[in-house]
Specification:
Distance between the termini: 26 Å
Helix content: 10-25%
Radius of gyration: 27 Å
Strand content: 35-45%
Structural class: alpha/beta
Largest sheet: 7 strands, mixed
């Protein structure tokens, strides 16, 4: 849906300063207190990519703000170098683009073990079991007017994260009362939390574009009749 959005009449210049983890959650562990966070701290990277991909790149003109300090330092180096070698008549840099709207928000929820369950069976010492768990990540996003500070749009999206585990066990006496065979094997598959965050962000951008068109903040380009 993100790539196939209808193109706009004109591009929207937009800025992202920060879009991070607002949950404050840490990875769970039974024995140790882990310092690693439960969700990615680089959600702003996925947001910028989603904005650049919207409508095959036709929707948003994204200006750099997260690394603004580095950008300004580099521009200052260019100015100083040009002045040193070319004097007062040195060619000036083009002005930086300014954004008409900002995006704020972040990852507002990460709920684990929302649903857990499983099933198993054993017959003549041979058994199989299947377990599953469902988590959910929630994204909140708002569009703000730079000129007035008004929140123009606010959207939220959720993405389910599924984890499954399948195991097989064997329990048998090989010789009456003397030898025992017991073996167990299993397979666990967990959906990536980072991938879920990325998809939730992309879905939020799609909602943002569609709601903005409904509220007449922008409009889709009409196809020319043949």
């Amino acid at each position: 849906q993100l790539n196939t959005l209808p193109p706009p009449v004109r591009k929207v210049t937009i800025a992202v300063y920060k879009f991070g983890d607002l949950t404050g959650q840490r990875k769970s562990s039974e024995n140790l207190a882990l310092l690693s966070t439960a969700v990615t701290q680089g959600a702003d990277v996925w947001l910028i990519q989603a904005l650049k991909k919207a409508g095959k790149g036709e929707w948003f003109q994204v200006v750099e703000r997260i690394g603004l300090d580095n950008l300004l330092k580099e521009r200052q180096i260019i100015r100083n170098t040009r002045t040193s070698y070319e004097g007062k008549g040195a060619k000036t840099l083009r002005a930086l683009l300014f954004a008409g709207v900002l995006i704020e928000g972040g990852i507002v929820g990460y709920d684990t073990n929302m649903i857990t369950g499983g099933i198993g069976a054993r017959y003549l010492g041979i058994g199989i079991h299947d377990e599953y768990r469902r988590d959910m990540v929630t994204i909140g996003m708002r569009l703000i007017s730079v000129q007035t500070g008004e929140v123009l749009l606010a959207v939220s999206t959720q993405k389910t994260i599924l984890s499954t585990r399948i195991g097989v066990s064997v329990f048998k006496f090989l010789d009456m009362g003397t030898k025992l065979l017991e073996t167990e094997a299993g397979f666990t598959q967990n959906e990536s939390v980072t991938y879920a965050v990325r998809k939730a962000i992309e879905a939020a951008v799609v909602q943002l574009v569609k709601k903005g068109e409904e509220k007449e903040l922008w409009e889709f380009k009409k196809e020319k009749k043949k």
